[in-house]
Amino acid sequence: MQEREDALAEEEAGLDELAAPAPDDNPNEDDYYQHESLESARHRADVSPIKGERQTKSRLESSLTQVYIVSYLIFFSIFGVLARIGLQALTIYPGALVANTDLWANVGGSFIMGVLREDRLLFRRHWREHVQNAQKNAGSSPANSHRGLDTSDTPDQENIMDAARKSFTSARTGIPAYVGLSVGFCGSFTSFASICRDGFLAIANDINTAPISTKQAGVEFRTRPSGDSVMALLAVIILEVGLSIVALTCGAHSATFLARPAEKVPVLNLSRMLNPLIVVLAFGCWLGATLMTIFPTHDVWRGRVLFSIVFAPLGTLSRFQISVHLNKLVKSFPLGTFAANVLGCCVMGMSYDLQMSSAGSAILSCQILQGIIDGFCGALTTVSTWVLELDTLRLEHGYFYGACSIFAGVGCFTVVMGSVKWTTGFVAPTCSV
């Protein structure tokens, strides 16, 4: 199993959800902050030798694992989008403090990503195997490997645990459930495109605050100076990005804090039972939702959810493939995540334009466009991976990458949506009433 995980780790090294070091890369609380950058983690994976014969054998044996990974991505993308839509319904209420559509989802998904990157509980069976291998390679006795995260003050033991941690981080690519949770659920639960869309709407003074207003909305449009529009954009960016980064770190701290108590929980090997079950559930749920869209979907909530479920796996699988092939091209700039986020912004902007025009006058077309916005674009773009990359890249690279992503995303919406907003104007979509 170790050989298969190593081969998959090299083949899919572009997934930054798996390649990046943990946000809280200092579980022993040393005198100064020890943090490995994403670039150095990628370099270590690139120079790690894997024998050709073993790699060929592992790839032949990993075909079933690839099926499991795709199934987990489909399954968790569906539930990630459902969780985001459900959280919108809970957090958009009269008197709510902010009108940002997916603020709570972005914060929650980033928190879960932080937990997963530091986790030693959900996948402890794999973690202990890497501890045993590290002890074996170091020539020490694996008798105490059941202690899992327990470390001594000796340099040898610290080096063993550090080697096990790096090996376990690299090998997570071969664990279908971990790929499904991090790439599938967290990536679909969060939405980078919604941040950029809300940023443009803040510039255009068109954020809909009626659902959270405690007073009846008036019909009179209130203009404001351009400087106030800049402040509104900054408020959206600072609030969304800042809280997501804080949530990522808090999630990592929570996982580190719970690591030792979690060792008392018995280890269960559920993969043999869950993996085949997820294949049936994933494709069954996807097919079932697709068939249900054949029937009339005049109910706003039912139509929005069904079409979002249909389009969500397409967005997640597209982001997965884009990241696998493009992220490893430039170590200091995650090109795959950047391309997926920008592409999602463009598609969301065009869908929003169509929905706010005569094309969205029919309820069915309006619901399909809403499904593309919530399902495909929401799953194609991700905040959890993006803030993980910001946190683990070297400082100058992280700031450059973050600024380019924000400028490109908001710029796409400004061009695509602004050309309609400032010419013909928007009309209320049929499926919103």
- Count of beta strands: 0
The class by helix and strand makeup works out as mainly alpha
- Strand percentage lies at under 5%
Global outline: globular
Report Rg. Answer: 23 Å
Low-confidence stretches: 29-33, 48-57, 141-153
Strand count, sense and barrel status of the largest sheet are: none
Order of helices and strands: HHHHHHHHHHHHHHHHHHH
Number of helices: 19
- Average pLDDT confidence is 79
Binned, the helix content reads 55-70%
Straight-line N-to-C gap: 53 Å
Catalytic activity: fluoride(in) = fluoride(out)
Keywords: Cell membrane, Membrane, Transmembrane, Transmembrane helix
InterPro entries: FluC (IPR003691)
Subcellular location: Cell membrane
Features:
mainly alpha; globular; about 425 residues; about 70% helix; transmembrane
Structural overview:
By secondary structure, the chain is mostly helical. It has one domain (2-432). 68% of the residues lie in helices and 0% in strands. The chain has helices at residues 2-11, 16-19, 38-47, 52-61, 63-91, 103-118, 124-138, 155-171, 176-189, 192-203, 226-257, 259-262, 271-292, 300-326, 335-355, 363-380, 384-392, 395-416, 418-421. Helix 9 crosses helix 14 and helix 13 (271-292) crosses helix 14. The chain is globular, with a radius of gyration of 23 Å. The chain crosses the membrane at residues 67-86, 92-116, 175-195, 230-252, 273-295, 301-320, 332-350, 362-387, 399-420. This is CrcB-like protein-domain-containing protein. Fluoride channel required for the rapid expulsion of cytoplasmic fluoride.
